[in-house]
Specification:
The complex is a heterotrimer of chains A (441), B (109) and C (172). Chain A is mainly alpha-helical and 441 residues long. In chain A, 31% of the residues lie in helices and 6% in strands. Chain A has 2 domains: 1-74 and 213-441, Cytochrome c-like domain (Cytochrome Bc1 Complex, Chain D, domain 2); 104-191, Orthogonal Bundle (Cytochrome Bc1 Complex, Chain D, domain 2), CATH 1.10.760. Chain C is built from 2 helices and 10 strands. The termini of chain C are far apart. The chains are: A mainly alpha (441), B mainly beta (109), C alpha+beta (172). Chains in contact: A-B, A-C, B-C.
Chain lengths: 441, 109, 172
């Protein structure tokens, strides 16, 4: 249950964070940042490069496989997490209601359209075909009973910030996801939603009464989680001599079991040699070629499998990432600012989905997905096996994917911005036991 | 996928004569799904595991005929009741002639 | 908690000789193909099978034989809501003494809304000690999943459960 105090308290925390972020922009913000932009050592699809097509259109190079494949948009116009991207959020705007006649049936189709919203990702409406609806926003099943003026609803859809400056609802009209005439149809549809609502035949249709997902079983069972088998495959790489004549095994005596025990509990961490925060994945991209001569590009199979192998040696051990040294603290603060920064065409922040409060996502359904709370921990099981993709994903690819449907270009997988965001997220897991590789949908 | 055909079998660590043993197994395999071109399914020789054979000391315990409706990296579990110690063997056959095997030794405690 | 040990590190890939492949093909033909006289005798085991409504599947597999309600003896465990249709774990356990004279001969797993509803057929033996199997299914969309048990005397029993398949949360 949400209490009014929750909303208020959330607001205060948010304001405090903003002022904290502002207060340290001049001094602390550069502690722990490399002196020059980091040169990505990711596989080509993971670098986030924007290339100009033969027809002159710009396009970000994305992963070839689903779900990235088939996302044709370029979102260069919208701000990202890049530290040198100082563009402001899209300014709040209004538009006059167009004079087309609203068609409720078209409005309903637009409300359900996965290519645009879908509005049902956050709001419940009546209908057996509404599956699966989320409950981050209000249940709109009887919205028409509120008898709100058309212009008000239109403006609320066009850019909700006109009325609610801190809303998590995207400014659909301002950033052009929906055209004004489309919003007129949605207004007409919403006006038809009158009570009383017939008794719910299927408790799962309503996200408030829906059964919670059961998960995918024991993530460390190799007959349950294929990623365990892939991680074990990294043993071959561990003992393979690279062009420099050395293997991992030559310096790290006793095998990963002994030499890597507990090592991963301190990552991501500030690595002095590279003057930046690094996850295990980031570190391998530079450490492997410098010692063995073997490439271990971010998002390559070797990198992911080796990361899992290393992290598995810390399973059951509590995380203890450093956030107090001057460099780590600066990185942590920047990571926190990223977590609350609104980005992309949808003007979302990580906090919209992963913190608690009215209109926020934690422990609520986004469509069929139950969203996790940052404080409960989002990190201790990464890299993980994604059953829906049949692939191992590290946290970076997960971040890159979050960004794609939300309408912003992704950063390189090994970007400093992601590393520091990962540090901020991982700090919530300090003291909690690692369990790698995880398994999720 | 370099790991194609990797098999893993798990059995309980303590087995007594007369126990009904639960076995879990997984094989790394793409289990290629039907492709569509212009909405129409493409006819080709799809690569998927179509048969699973379980033997104990050479005797057939269980067979499964499987299709593309089985997930990538197929997982199977089953029970069996060993009356003597021996070797459990699981063989997976795919539509392109691939044969993948895993074994687990059953000892009584 | 159950402790487990692992076997099965053996792994190898061998290509069956043409003869062996044909043998397998012939054995599998009645199950995989659309019916007598269809293609798979050519060794092209993975060839595309026609789309089939579930009623036709049941007719093809069981003819007109009666299928009794087996919900009291068949225990199906699978998620009511699948977070992802690509991996839907299912276990089926049929109450049976599993003796040479009284055992479950086959368990069929059928999902109504898949292009080809017939997903897997398990052929059991009394040596299993129990009639319990598990697998991970791919489900196209929300719909019923059936488990049909065929006893050694030819009796057919069925249980079914609806599984709701969810799709991604935002856009795309």
């Amino acid at each position: 249950m949400l209490r009014p105090g929750t909303v208020f308290g959330g607001g205060i925390v948010f304001a405090a964070l903003l002022s904290a972020a502002c207060a340290q922009t001049d001094k602390a913000s550069t502690a722990g940042l490399p002196p020059a932009p980091w040169i990505s050592r990711a596989i080509p699809e993971g670098k986030g490069e924007v290339k100009t097509q033969p027809d002159g259109k710009k396009m970000q190079v994305r992963y070839k496989r689903a779900p990235f494949a088939g996302v044709p948009q370029d979102w260069s116009d919208y701000r990202t997490y890049a530290y040198d991207d100082t563009r402001p959020a899209p300014p709040v705007s209004k538009a006059p209601m167009t004079q087309v006649k609203g068609d409720p049936a078209r409005g309903r189709r637009l409300f359900l359209s996965r290519a645009q919203g879908p509005c049902t990702g956050c709001h419940l409406i009546p209908g057996a075909d509404v599956w699966p609806a989320g409950n981050i926003g209000p249940d709109l099943s009887t919205y028409g009973d509120r008898n709100l003026p058309d212009e008000f609803i239109f403006t609320q859809l066009y850019d909700s910030r006109n009325f609610f400056p801190h809303t998590t609802m995207p400014p659909w009209g301002t950033t052009g996801v929906f055209k004004p005439e489309e919003l007129v149809h949605i207004v007409a549809f919403l006006k038809t939603l009158k009570g009383p609502v017939p008794p719910e035949k299927d408790p799962d249709r309503n996200p408030d009464t829906r059964a919670k997902p059961v998960g995918f079983g024991d993530n460390l069972d190799p007959t349950n989680n294929p990623a365990v088998l892939l991680a074990e495959g990294a043993m071959a790489v561990w003992s393979k001599k690279g062009p420099a004549g050395k293997a991992c095994a030559d310096c790290h005596a006793g095998g990963p079991e002994k030499s890597m025990k507990e090592a991963a509990t301190r990552y991501p961490k500030y690595v002095k040699a590279y003057q930046r925060v690094m996850s295990i994945e980031d570190f391998l991209t530079v450490h492997a070629p410098e010692t063995t001569g073997l490439q271990m590009l971010s998002q390559s199979a070797d990198n992911l499998n080796m990361t899992m192998l290393v992290k598995m040696q810390s399973n059951g051990m509590p995380l203890k990432v450093d956030v107090t040294s001057p460099e780590a603290k600066g990185a942590y603060e920047r990571g926190r600012a990223s977590f609350f920064k609104r980005v992309g065409q949808r003007n979302h922040a990580c906090a919209d989905c992963h913190t608690k409060g009215a209109g926020r996502g934690s422990d609520k359904f986004l469509g069929g997905r139950l969203l996790a709370d940052v404080e409960v921990g989002l990190t201790k099981h990464f890299p993980l096996w994604r059953t829906s993709q049949g692939q191992v994903w590290d946290m970076r690819k997960r971040m890159q994917w979050c960004m794609t449907p939300l309408g912003m270009n992704m950063l390189p997988a090994d970007a400093v911005e992601y590393a520091e965001l990962e540090l901020y997220l991982t700090a919530f897991d300090n003291g909690k036991e690692m369990s790698v590789p995880g398994i999720r949908h | 996928m370099a790991e194609i055909g990797k098999v893993r079998i798990r059995i309980p660590s303590n087995i007594k004569r007369g126990d009904v043993v639960r076995v879990r197994s997984l094989v790394i395999h793409p289990m290629e799904i039907v492709q569509r071109r212009d909405g129409k399914p493409v006819d080709k020789n799809y690569l998927f595991i179509h048969k699973v054979m379980v033997e104990y000391n050479g005797r057939e315990i269980l067979q499964a005929d499987t299709t593309q409706s089985i997930s990538e990296n197929p997982f199977f579990s089953f029970t069996f009741k060993p009356t003597e110690p021996g070797m459990l063997r699981i063989t997976f056959l795919d539509t392109h002639g691939g044969k993948y095997e895993g074994t687990a030794e059953i000892k009584f405690t | 908690m159950q402790e487990w040990v692992e076997g099965g590190r053996v792994s190898r890939r061998v290509v069956l000789r043409a003869l062996g492949l044909l043998g397998v093909s012939a054995a599998a033909a009645p199950f995989l193909a659309g019916g007598p006289g269809t293609a798979s005798g050519q060794g092209n085991l993975g060839s595309l099978q026609p789309e089939e409504p579930v009623d036709a599947t049941l007719k093809r597999l069981f003819g007109g034989r009666p299928i009794k309600d087996g919900s009291s003896v068949i225990k199906m465990d699978l998620p009511l809501i699948a977070e992802n249709g690509a991996v839907v774990p299912i276990t089926v356990e049929v109450q049976s003494p599993m003796t040479p004279t009284n055992y479950v001969k086959s368990i069929y797993i059928i999902s109504d809304r898949n292009r080809r509803p017939m997903n897997a057929r398990f052929s059991l033996t009394p040596e299993m000690g129990a009639a319990a199997i598990g697998a991970n299914l791919r489900l196209n969309e929300t719909g019923d999943v059936r488990a049909i048990a065929e006893l050694n005397d030819g009796t057919l029993l069925m249980a079914k459960r609806e599984v709701k398949v969810t799709v991604g949360g935002c856009g795309g």
